[in-house]
């Protein structure tokens, strides 16, 4: 949940063999309640929508136009309320692990388009992407007294895979270090929850949010959802799969620099 460079890629299988037609594109427009959004489109037809409010991915569609993220029908898109669903950015605090409001303030702030991001080591020429940046306001500094630059790149690859990369820099003038917790709190769209299985978290230790964050060890070999679940798994593998038997769809999540994973 913490670190300087946090990357997460999600793919949804199976990929479609449809032919390549248009070039990747990035379009700026007005979304719900006039809030600014960015639409990423890649050559085979997949797309993603990102609101500057929260730096929040609200939609991710595959090349058949099927929505892959859940967005609550009660999501109101009215600042200062966080958007419910999609991919909220929890920063500088995940959940209630600190003195700030639940999940920190980054999801309730207006991010800017980062016109001049530092270069990336990897080639993104074949991707549709947008770079966003968040810096604290004076008001933010009153509740969390650390100066930072949070750069977020959201990229959609030619196969429709979605990649988020976070680069967080300490800009305190005295160089004083700070620590933070962080999460991409992704809401995947699935059919019936009883048809869903998660692979990659078996036998791991977790903190159970429904039992005062007590630590337990996962026992079963297939992780399903039989009742309410709210668990933070510790030291998870870089690859986790979410298998939706009814939709016959598998989300493959790959991550780098993010040791823990939440299942809820
Ligand atoms: O309702 P929020 O603030 O968007 O948070 C979503 C969920 O985030 C999880 O991390 C919490 O453990 C849940 O209790 C919570 O419901």
Short note summarizing the structure:
The chain has one helix spanning 138-143; strands at 5-13, 25-30, 36-41, 47-51, 56-61, 89-90, 112-113, 128-134, 148-156, 162-170, 183-184, 196-199, 205-208, 214-217, 223-224, 231-233, 239-244, 249-256, 261-263. It is mostly beta strands and 264 residues long.
Structure characterization notes:
2% of the residues lie in helices and 37% in strands. It is mainly beta. It has 2 domains: 5-189, Beta-galactosidase, Chain A, domain 5 (Distorted Sandwich), CATH 2.70.98.10; 191-264, no CATH class. A 9-stranded antiparallel beta sheet has the order 7-8-9-10-1-18-17-12-15, with no helix packed on it. It has a 4-stranded antiparallel beta sheet with strand order 2-3-4-5, with no helix packed on it. A hairpin with a 5-residue loop joins strand 3 (36-41) and strand 4. The chain starts with a strand and ends with a strand. It binds 6-O-phosphono-beta-D-glucopyranose (BG6). The site of 6-O-phosphono-beta-D-glucopyranose has 8 residues, from loops. Keywords: Isomerase. It catalyses: alpha-D-glucose 6-phosphate = beta-D-glucose 6-phosphate. GO terms for molecular function: carbohydrate binding; glucose-6-phosphate 1-epimerase activity. This is glucose-6-phosphate 1-epimerase.
Q: What is the helical fraction, as a range of percent? A: under 10%
**Architecture of the largest domain in CATH?**
Distorted Sandwich
Radius of gyration: 18 Å
Q: How much of the polypeptide forms β-strand, as a percent range? A: 35-45%
Organism: Arachis hypogaea (Peanut)
Binding site for substrate: 84, 102, 107
Keywords: Isomerase
GO cellular component, one term: cytoplasm
């Amino acid at each position: 949940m913490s670190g300087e460079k946090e990357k997460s890629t999600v793919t949804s299988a199976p990929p479609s063999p449809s032919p390549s037609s248009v070039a990747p594109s990035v379009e700026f427009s007005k979304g719900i309640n006039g809030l600014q959004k960015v639409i990423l489109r890649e050559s085979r037809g997949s797309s993603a929508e990102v609101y500057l409010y929260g730096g929040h991915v609200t939609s991710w569609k595959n090349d058949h136009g099927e929505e892959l993220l859940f967005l609550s029908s009660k999501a109101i898109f009215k600042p200062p309320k966080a958007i419910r669903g999609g991919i909220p950015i929890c920063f500088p605090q995940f959940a209630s692990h600190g003195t700030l409001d639940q999940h920190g303030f980054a999801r309730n702030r207006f991010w800017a388009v980062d016109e001049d991001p530092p270069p990336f080591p990897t080639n993104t020429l074949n991707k549709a992407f947008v770079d966003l940046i968040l810096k604290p306001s004076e008001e933010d500094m009153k509740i969390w007294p650390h100066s930072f630059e949070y750069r977020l790149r959201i990229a959609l690859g030619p196969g429709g895979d979605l990649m988020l990369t976070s680069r967080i820099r300490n800009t305190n003038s005295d160089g004083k270090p700070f620590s933070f917790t962080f999460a991409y709190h992704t809401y995947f769209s699935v059919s019936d929850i009883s048809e869903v299985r998660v692979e990659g978290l078996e036998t791991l230790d977790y903190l159970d949010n429904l039992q005062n964050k007590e630590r337990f060890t996962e026992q079963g070999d297939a992780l399903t959802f039989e009742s309410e679940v709210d668990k933070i798994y510790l030291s998870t593998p870089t690859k986790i799969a979410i298998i939706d038997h009814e939709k016959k769809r598998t989300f493959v999540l790959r991550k780098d620099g993010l040791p823990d994973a939440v299942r809820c």
